[in-house]
Amino acid sequence: xxxxxxxxxxxxxxxxxxxxxxxxxxxxxxxxxxxxxxxxxxxxxxxxxxxxxxxxxxxxxxxxxxxxxxxxxxxxxxxxxxxxxxxxxxxxxxxxxxxxxxxxxxxxxxxxxxxxxxxxxxxxxxxxxxxxxxxxxxxxxxxxxxxxxxxxxxxxxxxxxxxxxxxxxxxxxxxxxxxxxxxxxxxxxxxxxxxxxxxxxxxxxxxxxxxxxxxxxxxxxxxxxxxxxxxxxxxxxxxxxxxxxxxxxxxxxxxxxxxxxxxxxxxxxxxxxxxxxxxxxxxxxxxxxxxxxxxxxxxxxxxxxxxxxxxxxxxxxxxxxxxxxxxxxxxxxxxxxxxxxxxxxxxxxxxxxxxxxxxxxxxxxxxxxxxxxxxxxxxxxxxxxxxxxxxxxxxxxxxxxxxxxxxx
Length: 408
What we know:
single chain, about 400 residues, CATH 1.10.630.10, five-stranded mixed sheet, three-stranded antiparallel sheet
């Protein structure tokens, strides 16, 4: 459990790191940008190195190629018989290519842009209730219900079942963190079984009663043969539902926190709502929902003079790359019209987030609308309360007091 010791240069488990990881990122980038960290992981903090890693064709996303795979599996108490093929997020070509192709057509820009009016209806409905109360928890009352409702509707999950996925998703997301223990894995296995049982029943219903939704499209691809196995279908559905909302929850809540912490930029957005698109890009850079992403080299290689062996884990710190002064002038300053803005919040290469367009538009609608419809947003807590997860960085809650703008 080397990562938990207090003397590590990169220790994401420390309370001060959870509160603000950016001083640690800057220190590592200055002193040791290609950093070796126990129990055997290379840490990259520069933007150029992160982009190189994400685009390198000799890198694997399949953790089964890691020399730490057996160690972690034993530490987590996973029975090999309980393991299933990973989702496309952790697959390499040609499997990754095949699986990604099946879902990409559901996330075309035209299709996602066509959903904007419906997203607006959802956000207005949520804000109507909040403005009547005069306060809301940004996370629970806006950032969470919007993307959950959207991805559930895309998949074809009935509205009465939307509430089921909160705990299951939380348990599965926790397994993305480094060095998770047996208790975390046990909860994730239980939630994985619950997800499977739910979707098996819904798949059976869709086979009888096809609809114009993503679930039906994936079932039809499976039935054509040679495209999608039953196990892959279940894995893809869980990935789409979990990834389709967890990161967007963080985008919306982190973004609104950043604006409240920077009242000058908040005022700037109120005065010029037309800057919402570059504003969301800057909020993604400033407080990225995903803080790190890893790859495994399939051959020995050199990174800035450091010898990296085949099978060693290499992790790009997205949060550090997004604040690299070599790429971003005054990187700790929030600038809603920053140009250019080559952040890596959505990853890169063949694994660039397939739902990035969806997340962007949800962020634009949610953040743009609450800024437009309020005259003031006042935080009701002094310190932000962050979730315990490390790979995904987001707020557990963000209670605020709202006052309505004079005109909608």
